[in-house]
Amino acid sequence: SCFWVAVLDGNVVGIVAARGSEDDNTVELRRMSVDSRYRGKGIAKALGRKVLEFAVLNNYSSVVLGTTAVKVAAHKLYESLGFKHMGVVEHYVLPGMTHSLVEKMFFQLRYHRYRLQLREE
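The structure assignment produced for this chain is given below.
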């Protein structure tokens, strides 16, 4: 597993993590985030490419990710990196949610799954 930080002019402007799984020979791209003031500058794409590079160098067969992002730009980013949309889980529940009436009314999350096949097993 690895964690990368994007720094611009001495400021942390983005992060991403990767967690490898020996069970299915995949890397999960996790926790990608870019400071809103620096979005649209290619930072997220550079971080995503770093995870893909890590996966290739360590002979993983694919990279996967899951997101509850509602912004179209996030989904376009994943697709521009080569990820294929694999499906959606409706009414996704985040860890720690209590299923209260308020949560059911305001937190109707859709969990999107993506996969990038690097090589066949």
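Interim note for the steering committee: The domain at 2-117 is CATH 3.40.630.30 (Aminopeptidase). The longest helix spans residues 43-57.
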